[in-house]
Design goal:
Blueprint: E1 2-4, E2 9-11, E3 30-31, H1 37-64
Antiparallel strand pairs: 1-2, 1-3
């Protein structure tokens, strides 16, 4: 999805004009919005947490079998 700075909204790729312009304001200042650092941190923390919980579950199963 593209981002229009002037309209402050996301624009689907199929809505873009031929030159990559916004359908509402016709500006050509469209760019991809970067992923925020705190979202990346949340993903990393979730992967670490789920990995630890998987390890705990496997050791519990091995202990009780």
């Amino acid at each position: 999805m593209a981002w229009c700075e002037e309209c402050s909204r996301h624009i689907d790729d199929d809505e873009l004009g031929d030159d990559g312009e916004c359908p509402d304001c016709s500006s050509i200042t469209l760019a991809r919005r970067p992923i925020p650092w705190h979202f990346k941190l949340l993903i990393v923390a979730t992967v670490i947490y789920l990995g630890y919980r998987t390890f705990q579950g496997v050791t519990w199963v091995l202990h009780h079998v």
